Amino acid sequence: MKKTFIVLLYFLLPSITFSQWIDVTNGLLIIPSYGFAMDAMDSVNCAVAIDWLYITSNGGVTWSKKYVPYGVEDVVMIDPNRLFITMGTPIRIYSSIDGGNNWNISYNGDSTKSIFMNYVHMFSASLGVSMGDAPDTTKPALFLITTDGGSNWRSMNNLYLLGAYSGDIWRRLCFTSLSTGYFYDSKSQKLYKTIDTCKTWSALSSPINVTALNFYSDEYGFIHGALNYPNSLNRTTDGGLTWQSMTAPGSAGETCYKIEFVPGNPSKLWLLTSDNLYFSNDSGMTWRRDPVSDKFSYGVDIVCPDSKHGWLQAEKIFRNSNADQITSVINDDKIYPVEYKLYQNCPNPFNPTTTINYSIPKAGNIKLTVYNAIGSKVATIVNEYKPAGNYSIQFNATNLASGIYLYRLETGYYTSAKKFILLK
Questions:
Q1: Where are the alpha helices (DSSP H) in 13-165?
Q2: Using an 8 Å Cβ cutoff, are 113 and 142 in contact?
Q3: Are 246 and 227 in contact (CB under 8 A)?
Q4: CA distance linking residue 393 with residue 296, whole number of Å
Q5: Listing from the earlier edge strand, what are the strands of the sheet with 202-204?
Q6: Distance (Å, rounded) from C-alpha 302 to C-alpha 298?
Q7: How many whole angstroms separate alpha carbon 178 and alpha carbon 54?
Q8: What is d(CA 422, CA 122) in angstroms, rounded to the nearest whole number?
Q9: Is 256 strand, coil or helix?
């Protein structure tokens, strides 16, 4: 009888997919430093750059702290033994062939070459590229390539991008191959592209000031930034010649820190902001907020090493075993909004009751208050902590006189107000 009941219960329960973002911090001390970058080669091997370098070979069950000479800005894990890291200053690239136990100087620059090393990326064990900010306004940004696994690094850019700098380490660079790459220069506020291994760079027509970018291929990619309000997201399918404006998830206060494609399926991608993690399965046309957002307050990096697995870096470390889909309850009433929004009340004008709807993509303290025409507060409708979701509340103005009023929604990230009219 018990077995029959269990089977019936299974079929009667709503269809859900339980979250697979698992907290694998496991004693790894991240606060107060959230770190700068991470890389992973599969579901068990991951390297995280915080103050030191931390490596796991068992999916985050345990972490091994590795000594590094200076603070790490970017990290590449080719396999469990071979690693590359960049130092902001001094101008160096280090490599390891024993899992980070020992480090060798792969590139040793100086302040005449660059003032800050931002980025390193390896396409294979032998081919790679790295970038450093220009040392001054009269000299070009430093772009290096290696074709022998870091034994030698060649400076490729001698005439272009004078005084150029990233402005946010690796987030404004992306190379899809050794020959083709994109770089947003925070000095000129222009997006540039190379198709000849960094020898020359051409300015693209960028519709926004870029805070983060990523490309799945030479032709297909996204840029995220701020044009006006709210934050802007744009997509190209022709290598940056033209751009399509997309609906950016989140509120204006959220800075995008990483756009990450799911390998093998360019229509599926993640977008990590300072506050939330979003997922799209239709090439960025629509976005859904992942509930793991409630478990962190500061996003740093996200990496999908293959089509199923993901790693997320915030003030905690998370691992995912179904990175090609949103990890939340499927029922419609559990779909989270992707932006803060206060809607116009209905009916309007009203007497004496009206309904106010609002959406919040992140849990927090919410205030919904009413003011009269001279700015005096006359009612508090909501003043409490609310989970992320869509809300509808009825306001009763029986004790108020006819007139024009203002209702105002306030959160830690968003403020909006609308007028409504009470006619008795």
A1: none
A2: yes
A3: no
A4: 28
A5: 173-175, 181-185, 190-194, 202-204
A6: 12
A7: 28
A8: 64
A9: strand
Token pair of 7 as six digits? 């089977």
Query: Residue-wise over 314-326: b if at least 16 C-beta within 10 A, else e?
Result: bbbbbbbeebbeb
Count Cβ atoms within 10 A of the Cβ of residue 150 and give its class: 0-12 exposed, 13-18 middle, 19 or more buried: buried
Q: Read off the pLDDT of residues 295-330 as tens digits, 9 standing for 90 and up.
A: 888 889 999 999 989 999 988 899 998 877 765 433
Q: Are 320 and 21 in contact (CB under 8 A)?
A: yes
pLDDT in tens, 355-414: 999 988 777 789 999 999 999 999 999 998 887 788 889 999 999 999 999 999 998 778
> From the CA atom positions of the chain, what is the Rg in Å?
25
Q: What's phi and psi for 147, nearest 5 deg?
A: -125, 10
Q: Tell me: the pLDDT tens digits for 80-132?
A: 999 999 988 899 999 999 999 999 999 999 899 999 999 999 999 999 999 99
At residue 144, the 3 state secondary structure works out as strand
**CB-count exposure of residue 407 (10 Å: 0-12, 13-18, 19+):** buried
Upper half-sphere CA count for residue 210 (Cβ side, 13 Å): 35
Q: Residue 186 and residue 168: Cα distance in Å, rounded?
A: 9
CA distance 253 to 148: 43
Token representation of residue 2? 């018990």
| Inter-residue contact 341 to 359 (CB < 8 Å) | yes
- As a 3-state breakdown, the chain gives helix, strand, coil percent values, each rounded to 5, of 5, 45, 50
Residue type (1 letter), 183:
F
DSSP symbols for 201-221: -EEE--SSEEEEEEESSSS-E
Q: Is 35 left (phi over 0), alpha (psi -120 to 50) or beta?
A: left
Amino acid sitting at position 176: T
Q: What does the pLDDT look like over 120-132, one tens digit per residue?
A: 999 999 999 999 9
Tell me the sheet residues that pair with 351.
none
Averaged over 329-344, what is the pLDDT? 63
Q: CB burial class (10 A; 0-12, 13-18, 19+) of residue 49? A: buried
Instruction: Work out the widest C-alpha separation in the chain, in whole angstroms.
Output: 82
Write out the DSSP string of 78-97: SSSS-EEEEETTTTEEEEES
List the structure tokens of 29: 């001390």
The Cα–Cα gap between 304 and 290 comes to 16
What 8-state DSSP symbol labels residue 292? G
Would you call 257 helix, strand, or coil by DSSP?
strand
- For 76, the token pair is 């590449």
